[in-house]
């Protein structure tokens, strides 16, 4: 039984009172307000509502009207309209929605269950034969196509073993441009298993070891026997140091192209010489703080802040252009050049002297700031970037070895309190190393129906979960092109702090070869290019007629 149509809930009554200017109200306005406060429809009338629910205790689903799926952006391809309904604009205050269980599998439920809300990307790029290197770590990748992904499910034991063997032997598989029967292609299925392999340290199956930034809530309540055992912490840290040193030695020998160090406070990306357009090994750290940067300076580690320097250069260029424009306008309007070109007062001119207080005779009445406060005031621009992508630190050349020793002895590398206390950072690498454990990404196929103009169409998806490293993403696209007849779309959910790794290091113009690093030659060519994404990452990737378009 439903309630009376004229009944209004307390929140609706309050809204009506706000809309009324006084006791006298317009009947038409009152009718519109009553219609807006009326129940949402007769479809939910059978479900009895609580008439005393308020704005605070009312369920969010009942208080919020369902939003229609966003339409395709202007100028976009009409054939891509079904794909855009899976995207939602990013919202900081609204938590990501969980998909409700349904009787049939729907591809929409997968996109709504992404770890982080996805922002509507910018305009797509022009079609190219290759997409740019993305050094961010993906937590989830959702491939969608009009062709089924049956070739990626129910791998045989022999195919799985062959895929592991190809990975360990760094064997590369070359597929034809079009695979006629993907489900019966053993080479394709083995290569798919090979592309899912990565190496991890430490290996604690009951703990989620990636991501580590902001993972305290997910690790809370897990068994951590080393939290109160200092001897066990020292053993874990000693074992981790051996694995970390092994990875760095492989990187210097050009046998490992790159690896990640994921700590509770920051992440580090080590890249071998020849990758990202750099002729020397590089290491990028993000996010950083002023304390960490000061500690690195005290150890003699030379580094740069490429994103911060880029912002300063851009601001200086814009200020010069605006100054020239104002000067021209001022001359045309009759104003003096001296007034226009007068420089703004700078904090750098303040040398900390307080002689002007003595001249005024109030030096004893005014509390002078200490030297630390003066230094912080001068460095406030550097402090403001702490914990932000602009705080990315880039270390190059032989300083990466000094950074290795610094990180091993760094106190802030391991948390001292909380669920991650005493747990060494996570090491992620594409190749085997001492102490590393072979892991595989989780993959599953789902079929569903997507709404299109005039009805529905079948949509097949391949969902890949886990820390998807840059080489794994490219290896998967090399397989999906021939298997899906050169047409597929991908929704990528990046680990946001790692997007800053796409900042480009200085270019030397020297090409370095990495022939024995275990990656596919095409993947190696892609990762050797200079990054072009800045501090953003690819969120949308589409292949059509074997040409890529992407949106960041």
UniProtKB/TrEMBL annotation:
Biased composition (Low complexity): 27-45, 73-82
Protein's UniProt keywords contain Nucleus: yes
Top-level taxonomic group: Eukaryota
Keywords: Developmental protein, Nucleus
Localization per Swiss-Prot or TrEMBL: Nucleus
Database matches in InterPro entries: Donson (IPR024861)
Keyword field contains Kinase: no
Region described as Disordered: 1-82, 314-355
Main localization, broad class: nucleus
Gene Ontology biological process terms in this record: nuclear DNA replication
GO cellular component: nucleus
Biased composition (Acidic residues): 339-352
Membership in a protein family: Belongs to the DONSON family.
UniProt protein name: DONS protein
Organism: Rhabdornis inornatus
Lineage, highest ranks first: Eukaryota, Metazoa, Chordata, Craniata, Vertebrata
Encoding gene per record: Donson
